[in-house]
Known about the structure:
Shape: globular
CATH topology of the largest domain: Quinone Oxidoreductase, Chain A, domain 1
Helix content: 25-40%
Structural class: alpha/beta
Radius of gyration: 20 Å
CATH superfamily of the largest domain: Medium-chain alcohol dehydrogenases, catalytic domain
Distance between the termini: 17 Å
Number of strands: 18
Amino acid sequence: MINQVYRLVNPRHFEVHYQDVSLTSPLVAIRPTYFSICAADQRYYSGKRDKEVLNKKLPMALIHEAIGQVVHDSTGTYKVGSNVVMIPDDPKEENPVIEENYLRSTRFHSSSCDGFMQDYVFLKPDRLVPLFDELDLPTASFIELMSVSMHAIRQYQKRVLYPAKTIGVWGDGNLGFIVSLFLKNMFPDTKIYLFGKHNDKAEHFSFVDRIYYIDNVPDDVTIDHAFECVGGYGSESALGQIIDHIQPMGTIMAMGVSEYPVAFNTRMLLEKGLSLIGTSRSGRVDFVNTVSFLEKNPHVREYLKTLVGSVQVINKIADISKTFEHDLMTSWGKTVVKWKI
């Protein structure tokens, strides 16, 4: 069959490309139904990556946060019509120590190969996780981002040196919201403190135990461990503030992506014996754990619905750029796309 792939060829410019795909291959064919726009996709669209990177990556289909419906499965793993979340990792090997999302040989959709902005996506059965009927589909569109949070929390549980009475989360954006929400529900006896910058965003974090604004944090505030969800230029000040307020031998989970080198106080990092752990993306186990967590916690699903900033419908290729431009103007929540092209 001929599949249409909607690729970004230059910043802010999409074109349709055609692929001939065999339905007899041991892959599952999925019709995407809902997308969510990620900051990484937006950086490609708006040309905020280095020119060398853009020249290397483009043309490329964007989107790695997506769900869809199974339309054909020659492997017999899934029923036609099943709703599934698509895993953007495409590992080529297994390693007993290094997880799939960190292997240098792993491809990642919308980074090292075409993303999910296609008429149909063809994936191996283990790159899909079935969804349960009660799950709101626009909310499900950003399960990938939730799985990134789940992955970081799983790594935290493996690496932390002592139980936490308090955990600080730096960052009042989408990632900070999900991390804080998951932490509060996975560790109900632990106090979760948000360290934010914007009052209009922080007011959405009604479930945390305390909110501090980063320009007015009392000197005597301490936390046992921390999650940095800021990224960009703000990573530097966030890491600096974390190091100032974290207890000795605490663990810092660094999650925010920055395009530029970040400086921080290594002397105090050493004096306090801190662990700084970087996490990126997620693997199949994190998607499975996330879907299971959502199924068992309907109140969490209700909070996550508040992250759906808007649902944009894409009926034609011209709508794609309009949707990305809309997302650029969005100050809170996720821009969700209903894919009807």
